[in-house]
Amino acid sequence: MHGFADDNTSLAELERLVHDYTAERMRFDPPPLDRALTPAQLQEQAGQTITAEGLGGRRAMDLFAEVLAPACLSVDHPRYLSFIPCAPTEAAALFDLVVGASSIYAGSWLEGSGAVYAENQALRWICDLVGLPESAGGVFVPGGTIGNLSALVAARTEARRTAAAGQRPFRVATTRGAHSSIQSACDVMDAELSTVEPDERGRLTGERLREVLLAHGPETYFAVVATAGTTNFGIIDDLASVAEVCREFGIWFHVDGAYGGAGLAAPSVRELYAGIEQCDSFIVDPHKWLFAPFDCCALVYRDPAAARNAHTQRAGYLDVLTEAPDWNPTDYSVGLTRRARGLPFWFSLATHGTQAYTRAVEMTLEVAAFAEAEIARREGFELVGERFLSVVVFRREGWSAQDYAAWSDRVLDEGFAFIVPTVHEGETLARFAIVNPQTTTEDIAAILDSMV
Ligand SMILES: Cc1ncc(COP(=O)(O)O)c(C=O)c1O
Fold it and tell me: Are residues 280 and 224 in the same domain?
């Protein structure tokens, strides 16, 4: 099977099929938006794909290209502005093929030192953006959810190691705009989440945080989670005042920058992150606004030893790894086996240089500023909340939830755009998340024109 000899498709032909498909997909400008099919439609069009004899590579590839891929939305389409999109550079997307072809185990230095070295340089760039010391470090994990969970597990282990006798800190504090993965991490950890009321700009502040900590007893907390770019609005918490309160009470300060952390690369908004350099842990998803393909979250710690303490798995068959003084990425997160998922990001960063990243993030911010100005200027449109980064939320005056849904369905049906509404304080609203440098001001104007 590994020589493909009993397959009707030779290795050379498989290579050509994959190459041709990839080349064509990469050259679409823009790629077709595509749309979901129902299970019945897929059953009818693709049928049973797993058979005792195998379909052969050509037939399987045709099925993917003609039926399965068109039933998956192109998240890199310039008018895909829902949730948080993903717009990999060509270099990053292509290098994903190389990672797959290279059979690298990137959990340990022994097995994947070259990959780990490169990933660590990419992580170092992120640490520099945050302002973390040379001793900081971490690992690329699948996504923000696992990144947040891993950081909170490290925080709790550290808090319990240093807690006064008889104390077992079990609480986490955050604010309403925090991502749902924080609640999920607390559920997994059987920890209790305290929600701090945000200020009038929607931010977690030190002052309000202090009140909540004092009300419950600061010694019951093992972490505070601030968000640098909330998912729904892009709000950046008041990191400096939150850091100060965390320091005052000796509580681990985690910053979730899964979406908004990329803005650290943009001088025009850098000051919004003041105080971030004091964090104990930080995440950013390069698969969101740093132009890497799924799935890629950078998780970094000020003190990697605290994370190792929490995450290193021990077993006789692992002694050869755990007893070595090497940097083993798997020691810094939940999970053991890992692919070198940071390499596509590394390759693109190495290819283009960090200045290109700065320019690309700034470009998306400019398009977001254009969207904000257009919405403010147009009659019948009204901005909701303050724009911090590249998320813009607005109201189409007079529209009901059904109107937003009907418009969203229509523009997707037309293959024009994918923009799902959001809900804020019970009200359905329109929301743009702009992380794709291919999204133009003309795209934004055309989408607003379509909201009739
Ligand atoms: C602020 C924030 N944190 C965490 C996450 C979760 O990241 P992932 O979907 O990669 O698990 C998201 C996802 O949108 C996010 O915006």
Answer: yes
